Design the sequence.
């Protein structure tokens, strides 16, 4: 999958496009993209996936704790789905006010090699979202316009919004079914208060970017990826109420059978199951006793998952 800065970078090949945000690259996205890739191959068309950076809602209604994936993560998740070219349009308020006619003329129809447009069942673009399937069908009379159906898994709708809500509720098991993989957070390991090490459970704290969505506060069964290896772990998403009383959320992971210095390195945390709520303990001994139980329970769960 090659990154391009404009459709005019495609000089010789006829191609088809699809446009969307694709946050999370969930099973619905995967099935649709692979289907388009196959149709393009059969029609001897190159396949161009067009998305926006940043996510439009981050400009129009900025918020923290929202994105399922950062842009580089999304690119990596898309890279094995049969896409030939990846075109990321910079999103701004000016872009959001373009009429659908102007958007198509400036960004899509500038290259005469575009032959087919695949439209999501609910996707719309341009000012007031007037650029829906019906509009594109009327405006692009010389192109093939294909409407994509909504993807369902066992009669359940799949959408990025549904998955976000599941993660906010802490239901990482159900979100995994809709994503087709565990929900993950990736970030650089930063120095924390080192209280975990002092009580026998050293943790790796990650700086993951506040724009990324995080699961409901609590303790989770996780696996981590670091230095090309995977390890079992438990992760606390929370405010550390036993030691402090503030609103700074942290994500810290106790990696089993691992004690290397990984400050400054990138750590990926895969969330598998929620164990319990975060709680304030009466003292260190009570906290240590609970963490010991969490580790034992997590090891049992991860062992069962491997069978």
Sequence:
């Amino acid at each position: 999958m090659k990154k391009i800065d404009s459709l005019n970078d495609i000089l010789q090949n006829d191609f088809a496009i699809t446009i969307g945000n694709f946050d999370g690259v969930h099973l619905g996205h995967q099935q649709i993209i692979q289907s388009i890739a196959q149709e393009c191959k059969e029609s001897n068309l190159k396949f161009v996936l067009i998305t926006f950076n940043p996510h439009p809602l981050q400009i129009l209604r900025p918020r923290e704790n929202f994105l399922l994936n950062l842009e580089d993560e999304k690119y990596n998740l898309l890279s094995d789905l049969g896409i030939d070219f990846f075109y990321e349009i910079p999103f701004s308020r000016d872009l959001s006010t373009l009429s659908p006619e102007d958007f198509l003329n400036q960004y899509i129809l500038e290259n005469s090699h575009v032959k087919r447009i695949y439209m999501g069942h609910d996707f719309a673009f341009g000012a007031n979202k007037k650029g829906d399937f019906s509009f594109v069908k009327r405006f692009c009379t010389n192109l093939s316009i294909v409407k994509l159906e909504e993807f369902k898994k066992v009669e359940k709708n799949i959408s990025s919004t549904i998955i976000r809500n599941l993660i906010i509720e802490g239901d990482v098991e159900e979100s995994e079914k809709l994503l087709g993989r565990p929900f993950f957070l990736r970030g650089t390991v930063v120095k924390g208060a080192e209280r975990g090490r002092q009580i026998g459970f050293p943790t790796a704290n990650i700086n993951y970017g506040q724009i990324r969505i995080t699961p409901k506060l609590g303790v989770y069964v996780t696996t981590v990826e670091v230095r090309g290896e995977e390890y079992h772990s438990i992760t606390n998403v929370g405010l550390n109420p036993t030691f402090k009383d503030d609103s700074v959320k942290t994500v810290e992971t106790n990696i089993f059978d691992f004690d290397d210095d990984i400050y400054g390195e990138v750590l990926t945390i895969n969330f598998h199951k929620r164990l319990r709520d975060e709680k304030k303990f009466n003292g260190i001994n009570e906290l240590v006793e609970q963490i010991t139980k969490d580790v034992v329970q997590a090891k049992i769960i991860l062992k069962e998952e491997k069978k």
The longest helix spans residues 284-306. The chain has a mean pLDDT of 92. The chain has two domains: 2-157, 182-306.
